[in-house]
Amino acid sequence: MELRQLRYFVRVVEAGSIGRAAMSIGMVTSALSQQISRLEGELSTRLLQRSASGVVPTDAGLAFFRQAQLALRHADDAVQAAQQARLAGHVSVGLPSTTAAILGAPFLQAMNERYPDIRLHLVEALSGHLSDMLNGRLLDLAIVFHTESARRWSVMPLLDEPLFLCAHRDMPGLPSGVTSGATSGATSGGASGGASGGTTQLAAIAHLPLVLPSGRHGLRALVNNAFQQLGQTPRVVAEVDGLSLLMDVVQLGNAATIQPSSATARIAPGQLHMARIEDAHLFRPNLLASLSDDELSPAALAARLVLADVSRTLAREGKWAVVTLHES
């Protein structure tokens, strides 16, 4: 006797018809009927009373049906226990500071709900440092912005997010479009926090003093390349490799910054003016990189799926402003 025979029998009793049961499980009616007859032969007793309108269990069939349900529940519990035991362990995940601002807490919460036996180690660092740690096998997976230094990585594109000019509302030299619009609430692109300042173009803000991360940061390379395409050089007056400190410097009002939409999650309403930079080529890709699949533990594979799911859910719900959402 096999578990599948028990499942077939239970389904037939629940459906009240061999034909309906066969259709629900994708079998040919005659094949399912043969399986039931074989089961009755093994038990040497009639389990079903057949009629033109369907089937009903005999007394023996009803007793067998109840025990079969119990046996199947035990079997399913055994499978679940094995899966939960398999998905215990330790997973190291790297997040850039800007991405961590919007993704870190929701990801941790989702993992605690779905896989409470998996212990997470979250690392917040510059994207370049995360790449080094991934290559050094110090991380299982990380959000990165480019893959030039990849060594046998598995890479999944998640989303492309727009960039915003963030500045103190009284900073001199801001283009008129930056200071127009509402003074509080969410941006039109769906990013939360700060204050909406409409939109702008990179050329219109090229004269502004900027505080940006250093060259080791993926965002800095992205901004430098965008200015280079305009034939200009960004006017960087300070380099700060920490998001909180960088925003504190911007709050002083002497320099602005350029940040992705995820970074705005840590800007309090009304704290800064933000304007979405609408240059078509200026966006930051978010890539979910991990060690190759054959190097990842089952726990790490589960964490990778949850991280992708949470990222896309935040984008669909308008909590993370994106230019493109990669669904696959």
UniProtKB/TrEMBL annotation:
InterPro entries: LysR_HTH_N, LysR_subst-bd, WH-like_DNA-bd_sf, WH_DNA-bd_sf. Residues 1-58 form the HTH lysR-type domain. Keywords: Activator, DNA-binding, Transcription, Transcription regulation. GO terms for molecular function: DNA binding; DNA-binding transcription factor activity. It comes from the Bacteria. One of its GO terms (biological process) is regulation of DNA-templated transcription initiation. Belongs to the LysR transcriptional regulatory family. This is HTH lysR-type domain-containing protein. It comes from Achromobacter kerstersii.
